[in-house]
Amino acid sequence: MKARAASRDYRGLDRVIHERGRLAIMSMLAGGIGRMAFTEIRERLAMTDGNLSRHLAALEESGLVKMERRTGRGRPQTEVALTGEGRRAFAGYLERLEQILSQAKAATSEERAGAAAARARGREPEPEPA
Amino acid sequence: MKARAASRDYRGLDRVIHERGRLAIMSMLAGGIGRMAFTEIRERLAMTDGNLSRHLAALEESGLVKMERRTGRGRPQTEVALTGEGRRAFAGYLERLEQILSQAKAATSEERAGAAAARARGREPEPEPA
């Protein structure tokens, strides 16, 4: 059954992306031009250097972002860039998340109707047939 | 700035709900009549007894669900019911999540325009003014 499969899809939610700090980072990167300065991310998310570094290391290790040291005018700065794999993985993550949040709802709307009918008959609803 | 505040909102994502197994459980409960048999949840999510018990204990400890032992016709069974607090917390969670996913996008669309303009001028974009 489709809705049942969708419920189980929570296992498909990438753990590396799902962690809430990293989700915020990935969301900003994926929503924008795909690259931001380390300092800009740190400021926007009000994270400490250490915390952001740890999150980025986890994302980099999974091939989702890459770090680039930029030199040029002014001080050198580290830029964080989403990789192609990172963009695909984030799109996949959003798709799974959407399934869990919306199809789980659809899955239970039949039960709601069934339960209402059962209450009207004065008994508990039967478990759904397999 | 609104978008900046929204990005920081990742801290407002309830950790207890955000864990992906518990997110799947809460999503099913909140989408339905608010209560399900333990065995039904276990089957739908293909979780082990132990795993589901641990997740439910965490949700119960936070006051998000309550467990009810039902006796009557047939074998006694444990039902899991969403509390009023659980329903409110889940609604709040979804709202924050939506903000992180969508407003972070909005936050960076200005930058995208700025970056395109900067590229047209042949240099890197300036950091956004505070």
Give an overview of the whole structure.
2 copies of one chain form a homodimer. The first copy, chain A, is mainly α and 130 residues long. Chain A has a domain at 14-100: Arc Repressor Mutant, subunit A. Helices cover 62% and strands 12% of the residues of chain A. The first copy, chain A, has 6 helices and 3 strands, in the order αααβααββα. Chain A has helices at residues 2-8, 15-18, 20-31, 38-45, 49-61, 84-120, and strands at residues 35-37, 65-70, 77-82. A 3-stranded antiparallel β-sheet of chain A has the order 1-3-2. In chain A, strand 2 and strand 3 (77-82) form a beta hairpin. In chain A, helix 1 (2-8) crosses helix 6. The first copy, chain A, is elongated. Chain A starts with a helix and ends in a 10-residue tail after the last helix. At the A-B interface, helix 1, helix 3, helix 4 and helix 6 of A face helix 1, helix 3, helix 4 and helix 6 of B.
Descriptive tags:
homodimer, 130 residues, mainly alpha, Arc Repressor Mutant, subunit A, 6 helices
